[in-house]
Specification:
This protein has 15 helices and 21 strands. The protein is of the alpha/beta class. Helix 9 packs parallel to helix 10.
Length: 457
């Protein structure tokens, strides 16, 4: 039987996060803005006082998955006598808006990705059953200004949002419509947040953005106009004591400049891992996608990256079966994959998104053809991923210990190339970077041996 929460007890907050790493960051910041109101995170929606679904609109049928989840949470709310606040946040909220409120009356609040700093005010209004229940306006700069400068870190790795929005308008993508125009956070705000994380023991930060390498901002006016790009920001953040590893995602080929590539050669803290989506190896399809680059341009970036960091691990995204994709277009993609050689990649069948130009294009590829092409592409990508992981066997690599493994005495961590590494070691090593000898590899992780004697030597 559900009991009412007393005023002296903390309020229970459950957030379910869908989709991208930016949503993971946004969920963390929601917890930050709600903490002063007495909300404490819990692991399940059952008996929660506030349930937030932080949604993603990228994948197929994302909206229907949200409505299905809301149906289950509605039952929990009814079992609690209505004493549960339900909020839908993120990109589905931005895209669907009032339709969510209409289809699922149990929802109390709907807020887009640029409005979650208003969550405390909206929760207070909902509790009084007054005020606006829908907030989906684009106010990115206001959001960042309103967020608490300090964050509560959760482990030795953390995301740090530096850029939001997208101006590229790829014909298959909803992000410009759900996240708004590109906006870069100021250097000082990023630095304050990074220092706060470092002070709490964070050693690995991942800079986030829809087009993170489009970030730019005014740095100290030491020379010229003082305008920085992401490479200079990485150099700056690398000087913060305690920050040993810096990553960034997701990048766009159109924003990959020579200074950022050079930073990979100059800044040891900048990890040898690049996630740079190409989507297709066919120039004809890239043009139809409005990507703004060619396959040769992309391959030139890959070449420069490997010249800057010979140990660079490369990752990408691919869409198979885009409208009008011919057999030859698909073979061009396969050829590009063979030429690059990926450590990891993500591949999907094209699925139309309402409101995007590609949804109305002619030449939609039959589902069975998309399935066959995707299977071929994924087989090649799995082969490359397995070969990359196997290439580490016998090497001793630096691993950031992030937590305990599933087995007794086992720890897990991350390699510089984003691989999961499992090994036996003492629990006090969490948060440290230790040398681990790789003795085995699977498609998704590495097995290692840690020796305190080797570490001491």
């Amino acid at each position: 039987m559900t009991t009412q929460t007393s005023q002296s007890e903390p309020k229970r907050l459950f957030i379910k996060t869908y989709g991208c790493q930016m949503n993971v960051y946004d969920s963390e910041r929601m917890r930050d803005v709600l903490r002063p109101l007495g909300y404490q995170p819990v692991d399940t929606a059952d008996n929660a006082d506030l349930v937030v679904l932080n949604t993603c609109h990228i994948r197929e049928k994302a909206t229907e998955k949200v409505y299905s989840e809301l149906g289950q949470i509605k039952k929990m709310k009814e079992a609690a006598g209505g004493k549960m606040t339900i909020a839908v946040a993120g990109c589905v909220a931005q895209a669907e808006g009032a339709e969510i409120m209409r289809r699922q009356p149990a929802v109390d609040l709907v807020l887009g990705p640029q409005a979650y700093h208003k969550l405390p005010e909206m929760v207070a209004r909902a509790s009084r059953a007054t005020g606006e229940r829908l907030e989906t306006e684009f106010e990115t700069l206001e959001k960042f200004d309103a967020l608490p400068k300090a964050r509560e870190a959760d482990g030795p790795s953390a995301f740090l949002s530096v850029q939001e929005g997208c101006d590229k308008f790829c014909t298959f993508c909803v992000v410009p419509y759900t996240r708004g125009a590109e906006l870069s956070r100021p250097v000082d705000d990023i630095t304050i947040e990074a220092r706060s994380l470092a002070a709490q023991g964070v050693r690995d930060i991942s800079l986030l953005g829809q087009n993170v390498n489009a970030w730019h901002g005014a740095g100290p006016k030491l020379d010229g106009d003082g305008e920085w790009g992401l490479g200079q920001l990485a150099r700056h953040l690398a000087k913060i004591g305690g920050i040993d590893r810096i990553r960034y995602t997701t990048s766009h080929p159109r924003d990959m400049d020579d200074d950022l590539i050079a930073a990979h050669a100059e800044v040891p803290e900048l990890m040898p891992f690049l996630h740079l989506p190409v989507q297709s190896g066919s120039d004809r399809i890239l043009k139809a996608m409005n990507r703004g680059h060619t396959a040769d341009h992309y391959l030139d970036i890959m070449r420069k990256m490997r010249e800057a960091r010979p140990d660079m691990a490369l990752a990408s995204d691919f869409i198979v079966g885009f409208p009008g994709e011919s057999d030859q277009d698909f073979e061009d993609t396969m050829d590009l994959v063979r030429e690059v050689g990926y450590a990891i990649a993500y591949s999907f069948k094209y699925s139309p998104r309402p409101g995007t130009p590609a949804a109305d294009m002619f030449g939609h590829v039959p589902e069975e053809v998309k399935n066959e092409r995707l299977q071929r592409l994924q087989a090649l990508l799995r082969e490359q991923q397995g070969e990359f992981n196997a290439s580490k066997i016998g090497q001793t690599i630096p691993v950031l210990v992030t937590g305990k493994g599933r087995n007794q005495g086992q720890m897990h961590g991350r390699s510089p190339w984003m691989q999961a590494v499992h090994f036996d070691a003492p629990g006090h090593l969490i948060g440290q970077i230790v040398d681990v000898k790789v003795v085995g590899a699977t498609l998704n992780s590495l097995a290692g041996e840690y020796s305190a004697a080797v570490e001491a030597a």
